[in-house]
Design brief:
Blueprint lengths: L4 E6 L4 H12 L4 E8 L3 H11 L3 E4 L5 H7 L6 E4 L3 H7 L5 E4 L7 H9 L3 E4 L2 H18 L3 E3 L2 H10 L7 E8 L9 H4 L4 H4 L9 H9 L1 H14 L6 E5 L5 E7 L4 E5 L5 H9 L31 H11 L3 H17 L5 H14 L8 H29 L1
Parallel strand pairs: 1-2, 1-5, 2-3, 3-4, 5-6, 6-7, 8-9
Antiparallel strand pairs: 8-10, 10-11
Helix pairs in contact: 4-5, 5-6, 6-11, 6-14, 11-13, 13-14, 14-15, 14-16, 15-16
The protein binds NADPH dihydro-nicotinamide-adenine-dinucleotide phosphate, 1-deoxy-D-xylulose-5-phosphate (DXP) and manganese (II) ion.
Length: 395
Amino acid sequence: MEKKKQIAILGATGSIGTQALEVVRACPERFEIRMLSAGTNSDLLIRQAIEFRPKTVAIADERKYHEVKAALSGVPTTVFAGRDAMEEAIQHSGADIAISALVGFAGLGPTLAAIEAGMDVALANKETLVVAGQLVMDLAAKHGVKLLPVDSEHSAIFQCIVGEEHSVIEKIYLTASGGPFRGKSREYLSTVSQEQALRHPNWVMGAKITIDSATLMNKGLEVIEAKWLFKLQARQIDVIVHPQSIVHSLVQFGDGSIKAQLGLPDMKLPIQYALTYPDRAKSNFKRFNFAEFPALTFEQPDTGTFLNLALAYRALEAGGSMPCVLNAANEIVVAAFLKGEVGFLQMSDIISETMEVCEHIAVPSLVDYVEADRRSREIAAGLVTKSKGIYQIAK
Ligand SMILES: NC(=O)C1=CN([C@@H]2O[C@H](COP(=O)(O)OP(=O)(O)OC[C@H]3O[C@@H](n4cnc5c(N)ncnc54)[C@H](OP(=O)(O)O)[C@@H]3O)[C@@H](O)[C@H]2O)C=CC1
Ligand SMILES: CC(=O)[C@@H](O)[C@H](O)COP(=O)(O)O
Ligand SMILES: [Mn+2]
């Protein structure tokens, strides 16, 4: 009987975190939970900890410490709370693999802590690689740990290249659903609401990534993520819109052959593959039925309407701290859009302006990334405040 894989989940209460726990629940003979974390959702974290009895839990919101500690008094779990709680809980967990399922820049520190603790990382938090790709890849190499993609497109590519030499990869195609506003004009987009933007056609996900899908920033972030995961140049990464989200991505090889990975839109499959790699475990996930999808279609992204994809390629070409600046500005505008402070189209304008004015560092250290993130947020927030009045009067 093989030893059970010991798992830490950063962001256990979110969309990826809860689906990861479904995968673990379905395979108790393979997996055991060692660490769980939440931002503020103490109720769910407590229920998860009572069910899975991890060695450690972390709650970022310090005010929830006593509540979580009291609720887990009958469970052999150490509770950490506050700013460094996730790093501490990871270090003390003894896990073999960490699922990085936090959202945004907040995922970087805990993911680095998992790597430093010698854990493999099942990476959903794409922002970690967008912000500090070189640093993360170097640290993973130094500690001899694997970065296993969870993002559906990157998992698809990873599955397509198993057994292939890196030198035979000519290019990759990342598929994009096109989001809820595929085919819409800029005039239409100027009045769309948060509720409309949150209605993804195929996937149920957290709010931030759902807005990123609607603006195509998600695909921009994924282009940068792919560069680091698969050691590719920007010109080797293309985006193709595929509204059915069945073909999760494709790889073209030097002989012209293309491999694709297909399946129903269900994140449990890429999560499970990352946890069992190099094995492919059985599952009872719902199977694809050709009768339900008589046509799988593909079209070019509308980059004249959705400007974020070009901004992401620009950040990738500039390198250094620019992808970090792009990411921070994007986090600010997405939060502002969700609060009704800026309109849909203003998001790209503010990101673009932030990238123009924020200082660029060619070879950043971790401290430089933290500062670039802070400075970009400051600039973007200032631009949000400036445009807020104009947007609200126009509404
Ligand atoms: N959802 C999906 O299907 C997919 C997601 N991804 C990527 O995976 C990552 C997670 O996405 P998703 O699960 O949708 O996000 P959610 O918003 O659903 O979940 C985020 C998780 O992170 C926690 N969290 C958020 N902010 C902080 C913080 N500052 N400190 C500590 N914990 C925090 C939340 O805790 P709490 O619940 O307490 O707020 C929650 O557990 C993102 O990077 C996303 O791009 C990639 C592909 C698909
Ligand atoms: C499930 C997943 O990996 C998401 O990143 C998804 O791809 C988002 O859909 P879009 O293709 O609309 O960005
Ligand atoms: Mn994706």
